[in-house]
Amino acid sequence: MIPSSMELLRSHLSKVRIPEPTNRISKQECCISFDTPRSEGGLYVDLSSFLAFGKEYVGWNYEKTGNPVFLHIQQRRKPVTEDRPVKKPTLLAIGVEGGFDDREPEYEETLDIVILPEHVTIPFPSVELPEKVRIAVDAILISEGAERKEQLASWTAEKKKVSAYAMNLQQINNGIVVPPSGWKCSKCDKTDNLWLNLTDGMILCGRRNWDGSGGNNHAIEHYKETNYPLAAKLGTITADLEGADVFSYPEDDSVEDPLLAQHLAFFGIDFSSLQKTEMTTAERELDQNTNFDWNRIQESGQEVELLFGPGYTGLVNLGNSCYMASVMQVVFSTHSFISRYYEKQSLKMTFEMAPADPTLDLNTQLTKLAYGLLSGKYSLPAQEKQEGIPPRMFKTVIAANHPEFSSMRQQDALEFFQHLLDQVERANAAKPELDPTRSFKFIIEERLQCPSGKVAYNKRTDNIISLIIPLHEATNKEQLEAFHKMKAERNLEGKEIRASDEIIRPRVPLEACLASFSAPEEVHGFYSTALNAKTTAIKAVFWSSLMLLLHCIGACVGLITNFPIITFSGAPEKNCQGAVIHLISVILQGDVKTAGLTTFPDYLVLHMRKFVMEEGWVPKKLDVYIDVPDIIDITHIRSKGLQPGEELLPDTDSSGEKMEPTHLAANEDIVSILSGMGFNCLHCQKAAINTSNSGVEEAMNWLLSHMNDPDIDDPISNDSQIVELMSIDEASVETLISFGFQEEVARKALKASGGNIEKATDWIFNHPEVSSAVHMNATSSSMQAGDPGVPDGSGRYKLMALVSHIGTSTQCGHYVAHVYKDGRWVIFNDSKVGASVDPPKDMGYLYFFERIDS
């Protein structure tokens, strides 16, 4: 006798759970695909694990877990009326009153209880359903869902804080009375985007945006001159003062001024009669998010052919997630990631090997993302554009426990790329042969020669080359001089550069940037075991030094004219002849530290240092073009290791005694600079010590990464400044070595973590400077392709992708990726994918080169 559907359901009640408030419930997206309730076949929610599955994958879950009862959710589109009103958002939020309304069509939802493997279907709601099932389903339906909770938590903006300057704001009675209309900037002709300084009543224009729109920076310049802290945006002031836009320059944020009515009345402003004519800062941000004009921002408004199909799937912007989208589009255009997570990785096998909650497993979510981007399943033509796929689960996993990437703030694409490689490497630690990040790895070998003539070799691994942009090597100096002369004349006349005027930017060849890689730099305090004393060495790439020397000599004899001033770190500014003398003395004295690559990676990543610190630690983006060829050859920077006739520096001093470990003291200059920026002095000392006094930038990066360490406030002890290899469990050491870590690093990590392998692994990844500092075998001269985990091959590369950035800093603006695919350049701009007409090769922030195999 065949049991009825209700009898079958009752027989499986033991498999049905009623969700508790702490349970994660997925009901909006499949955990191993990008299927949703709106996809064909809808979505199936497991009533035991509360994970959701698309129609193609629900059977896999039954085979793996034996859970047979599911809530089936289907949403079908309703017809949309043409006269549907447009709702403009007023709050930086999604799914809340006043938040984003993307004018999505409405959907009609149907619910069923489905029992596998027979796919027996019971409509919901039904009075005949067991009470346990009804309660479980009701709890699922009223819950926000794990995806929605994360989305809302990330998108809803923080409430504006009361300014620390508002309650005691000093106002100057200089007779200014602000009229109710007809405003104009006091320093230019701007009549919009105007700000009223609440101290002296000056009306000035706002900041200039990255695309040339906005103001002329007169309001912020006025603050820098006067330190008057608060300004209110005219046109946003109405009877509802809560909607007024007040900005605090020292706090660098929009703030609340509880005394705004009083501060406005001081200048004769009757706010109750004013009408709103301008967008607030938050509304402008919303406007830019909802009206993103990608043709104007990218490729100068060219007609772009939209592309669809396998490998041409866009990524939905989750809110300032373009940094992640651009990097992932490039990464999943490399053979190593495609092979690891798509071609050689079955989605079903990935799910079978995944932990109980695959939404929190990085390898599972990377495979899901790979299939989403590369299969073409979600890249189908729509009316105007493809919808793309939302990488929410991937973002949750990759950003877990990271305070910045887990937020909705804009981030640095370089930092995310390196964070991604670190996390993927960790996820593949058990099987390093599968690790796709190896294709980016290479080994740098440094050669240091002290005045004794003896040498030392050190090696470290890396995955990017970060290049300084030598502006003095610009190839269009005459045009630049003429442009700056014209600009200076306009400034004297009180005029601004017209929008019709062509802006001339420096053009620097990529070869010049590569030549500056590890350019001459004095290294103080190097202890020579041959001299038994500290001496000064010069850190440089040897071939760069020779090129620079020849260039200088040519300039001295008149072969090259107008040679720029050359500045050596730690040395006074010298002219061309001085540079020659300095370099000759360096090379002849032997105080030379040279570097080269002992291996060439499959994919070479070049980072252009466009973001620099000006005086006063003010960040600035270099407005510069980089002339990048399609083919580069870096064969000449291959390091060949110990050469015939070279003598290694001894491990002991010349007296034959083993050098005792010395205590590393924090560099006072580094500590002073960081302390001056407001950091705790003890923290600054630890940062300097833990980065071996390598520089302010390195110390600051360490400091920002370790401010929440539980021992950050512990006093500095001598033991903390010396690395002593202790007697620890050798089995633990071997385990870490099997993960690919060096023995000395493994021992340090185990000592620092009390012998716990898991904590030691975390310690290694959180202290990359230790791995970089470990000296490898100094006598090796044949560390080539035989090194495990590091590829090698030809030094010739072709440009295969670039990530470009538009904006004034890495924390704002927009990232876009261009990838060379199928014989043409393709632009990936979040969910939009099109054939590139004019790829901005000279505007890249990150350049990705693929090795050309002989």
Automatic annotation (TrEMBL):
CDD domains cross-referenced by the UniProt entry: Peptidase_C19B, UBA2_atUBP14
Enzyme Commission number: 3.4.19.12
Top-rank EC class of the record's enzyme: hydrolase
Biological-process GO terms, alphabetical: protein deubiquitination; proteolysis
InterPro entries, per database record: Papain-like_cys_pep_sf (IPR038765), Peptidase_C19_UCH (IPR001394), Ub_carboxyl-term_hydrolase (IPR050185), UBA (IPR015940), UBA-like_sf (IPR009060), Ubiquitinyl_hydrolase (IPR016652), UBP13_Znf-UBP_var (IPR041432), USP (IPR028889)
Residue numbers binding Zn(2+): 185, 188, 205, 218
Matches recorded under PROSITE patterns: UBA (PS50030), USP_1 (PS00972), USP_2 (PS00973), USP_3 (PS50235), ZF_UBP (PS50271)
Pfam families recorded: UBA, UCH, zf-UBP, zf-UBP_var
Catalysed reactions listed for this entry: Thiol-dependent hydrolysis of ester, thioester, amide, peptide and isopeptide bonds formed by the C-terminal Gly of ubiquitin (a 76-residue protein attached to proteins as an intracellular targeting signal)
GO MF: cysteine-type deubiquitinase activity; zinc ion binding
Domain UBA: 665-706, 727-767
Residue ranges of domain UBP-type in the record: 161-271
Entry keywords, A to Z: Hydrolase, Metal-binding, Protease, Repeat, Thiol protease, Ubl conjugation pathway, Zinc, Zinc-finger
Domain USP: 313-852
Catalytic residues identified in the record: 322, 814
PANTHER family documented for this protein: UBIQUITIN CARBOXYL-TERMINAL HYDROLASE (PTHR21646), UBIQUITIN CARBOXYL-TERMINAL HYDROLASE 14 (PTHR21646:SF10)
Function: Recognizes and hydrolyzes the peptide bond at the C-terminal Gly of ubiquitin. Involved in the processing of poly-ubiquitin precursors as well as that of ubiquitinated proteins.
Family: Belongs to the peptidase C19 family.
Protein name: Ubiquitin carboxyl-terminal hydrolase
